[in-house]
Design brief:
Number of helices: 10
CATH topology of the largest domain: Rossmann fold
Distance between the termini: 7 Å
Helix content: 40-55%
CATH class of the largest domain: Alpha Beta
Bound molecules: adenosine-5'-diphosphate, magnesium ion
CATH architecture of the largest domain: 3-Layer(aba) Sandwich
Radius of gyration: 23 Å
CATH superfamily of the largest domain: P-loop containing nucleotide triphosphate hydrolases
Largest sheet: 8 strands, mixed
Number of strands: 8
Shape: elongated
Number of domains: 2
Strand order of the largest sheet: 3-4-2-5-1-6-7-8
Strand content: 5-15%
Structural class: alpha/beta
Length: 311
């Protein structure tokens, strides 16, 4: 059974996640290619390892480029570090002023502020780039490939982290405002207030999209091995508690060949995990993808993978 429901025109954002090396990038790229047959699609890589470029055999960078051989498909790399430095350089003055005005406040506020730094802001800024694209509405589908080792989880938890920081900052501002009003009788909203308000709006926008089951779907990728299975369980439970929908699970690298002793032994060793995956994730539509002899690189290999994903 292949991936289902992705051609629903309300569904805009697909996020691929899972353990490192399980096939997230390959599956995200093949899915984007398949969607691009009917929809104008933007593939967004958030993995600094440039894996989408490697997979496609085409240089993808910080500007949107058309993907060769797939007329409706474009791709871009969006990295948290990069997005953060753009944000910092655009708002250095306001951030400095926020801290300067806070020196009039009590020590507890300042310590709280400094201890918190700005958690989650890098991921929020990279996600903002994605939601900005979505709001411009140039594409019908947005396919996001995430980096391994908890990156998808950071991406999911970052709006909440930043929201906590905004609350502390807003409380400090409120005291500052009270003080100014007491001295001068009135208070004018300044650029720091504008920045905090716009950050708050950004967080809300991201949370709204992530939690909207009609617009956003998370597609976990795993392989029939013990560690990958455990990580998938953890990922799915965090997605569920964050209100982000996952309807299907890609089970990659499944051995199908019986032709040699190695193949037969690999196949036998996968069997208990495949059974476990079917039981543990029985509520999800499982899509099994065979282990190919060659890695997934270039359009021919991606087309083969695409057929497996959407057969
Ligand atoms: N079904 C498959 N058969 C053979 N090789 C695969 C398969 N899926 C992925 N690969 C290869 O495994 C490696 C890791 O895949 P990748 O998609 O980059 O994983 P991730 O993005 O999860 O780290 C790549 O070299 C890729 O070509
Ligand atoms: Mg990858």
């Amino acid at each position: 059974m292949g991936l289902k429901g992705l051609d629903n025109s309300d569904l805009k954002l697909l996020i691929f996640g899972g353990k490192g090396g399980v096939g997230k990038t390959s599956c995200a790229v093949a899915t984007a290619m398949s969607l691009a047959e009917n929809f104008k699609t933007l593939l967004i890589s958030t993995d600094p390892a440039h894996s989408v470029s490697d997979c496609l055999g085409q240089k993808i960078g910080f500007q949107v480029v058309k993907v060769d051989g797939s007329p409706n498909l474009s791709a871009i790399e969006v990295f948290a570090d990069e997005a953060l430095s753009v944000f910092i350089s655009a708002h250095q003055a306001e951030l400095k002023k926020l801290l300067e005005t806070s020196t009039n406040l009590d020590n507890q506020d300042i310590e709280e502020m400094l201890a918190l730094s700005i958690p989650g802001i890098d991921e929020v800024m990279s996600f903002k780039t994605i939601t900005d694209f979505m709001e411009q509405g140039e594409y019908d589908k947005y396919v996001v490939d995430t980096a391994p080792t908890g990156h998808a989880l950071r991406l999911i938890s970052s709006p909440k982290l930043l929201d906590d920081w905004i609350k502390v900052a807003a409380r400090m501002r409120w005291k500052y405002r009270y003080m100014i009003t007491s001295f001068s009788g009135s208070y004018q909203h300044d650029d720091v207030d504008v920045l905090l308000l716009s950050l708050k709006r950004t967080v809300k926008r991201i949370e709204n999209i992530l939690r909207d089951a009609t617009r956003c779907e998370f597609i976990p990728v795993c392989i029939p091995e013990a560690m990958a299975m455990r990580e998938t369980e953890r990922l799915l439970s965090i997605l569920a508690s964050s209100g982000i929908v996952a309807r299907q699970l890609i089970v990659n690298n499944v051995m199908v060949s019986d032709e040699c002793g190695f193949c037969r032994r690999s196949k036998a060793s996968q069997l208990p995990y495949l059974t476990g995956i079917n039981e543990t994730f029985r509520h999800l539509n499982k899509v099994e993808v065979q282990r190919f002899a060659e890695e997934i690189k270039g359009l021919d290999a991606l087309n083969k993978l695409k057929m497996c994903l959407f057969e």
